[in-house]
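Researcher: Predict the fold of tRNA-specific 2-thiouridylase MnmA.
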Amino acid sequence: MSKILVAMSGGVDSAVAALLLKEQGYDIEGAYMKNWINEDNILGDCPWQQDIEDAAAVADSLGIPFRVVNLMHEYRSRIVDYLLEGYQSGVTPNPDVMCNREIKFGVFLDYALENGFSEVATGHYAQLQEETADSPRAIIEGADPNKDQTYFLAMMRPDQVARARFPVGHLLKPQLRELAQKHNLPNAAKKDSQGICFIGNIKMSDFLREYVPDRPGPIIRADDDKTLGEHRGLHYFTIGQRRGIGVPSNSDNNFYVVVGKDIQRNALLVSFEAPSAPGLYSSRCEISGLSYTGEPFPDDCKIEAKVRYRDPRVAITCKRISPETIEVIFDEPQRALALGQIIAFYDGPKLLGGGIYTKIQS
Ligand SMILES: Nc1ncnc2c1ncn2[C@@H]1O[C@H](COP(=O)(O)OP(=O)(O)OP(=O)(O)O)[C@@H](O)[C@H]1O
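Model: Structure tokens for tRNA-specific 2-thiouridylase MnmA follow.
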């Protein structure tokens, strides 16, 4: 029977993933991935030591072998550099999506295959539709609509999907917690992690402050080009952001919102929140780095997409520009799309693939 390496973060989701596979009779081992932040420890916070202890304790209670895999160098080159380059060039990268393709189902899967395993399991809320004569294995949204994580898997390639397992994707989070308690898993009551896969409990703004030099520039009102103030660096801001701009609206009903970045002038563009705010809503965009989780979808087609994590699926039309680039036209204009971020494509609950916003048009 095939051997499965379970990626155990110390959190409850991957603990239950291991529990379920064990109960189903699979030959499994657990592994914690040590990433770059573990080694550098510059920000004086090390929640990961506790995470390793928690993952080891869960493996112990399940009676499965456990190891720590050091992926520090790969993480530095594939994720941290991508993150820093993105922020330095004025776009908003998505380390979580890249982490799944490059690390969890990239170097970590390679490590598993080299060490006698045939699959990698994670605690992602996603389901799998097994391969049929007509189509390869497909990723389907998780059963818990509040927890579905398929968006983060959008850039996975078919060969990676073929070797992935998501044992908890059919569960609702409360059911998962109940299972963890019923089986006395040592981390049954542990709080959920905050998302960004390697930064852990460290805030993105602290990370940026440490690694990307400040580069002050003007805050400009996009409607009339009036300078309203100064920002510390474009990388601290994302389109659609309202908090922390530092420019009062002097009015009770109007709020300034970031509507864009003018890279040439190093200017942060703001406007009052409104459907007519210049650049805030887009009806079309260009997507590069197009990647499919299974069969490629047709050159010109009507499908659905999630424009960001936690957004509902929306109707889109795709038009092919080149092998790796498409134009996406939204049925309804979408608010605050950020260059560098990821769009995920769907056919109903089935994930089709993803790509990177490289041009956004109103
Ligand atoms: N440092 C790590 N070592 C091993 N596996 C990891 C690590 N970080 C994340 N994973 C794997 O990736 C999955 C999704 O990661 P994410 O950070 O979204 O955690 P999560 O949904 O809070 O799950 P968990 O409760 O297992 O931490 C985890 O369930 C786990 O299988």
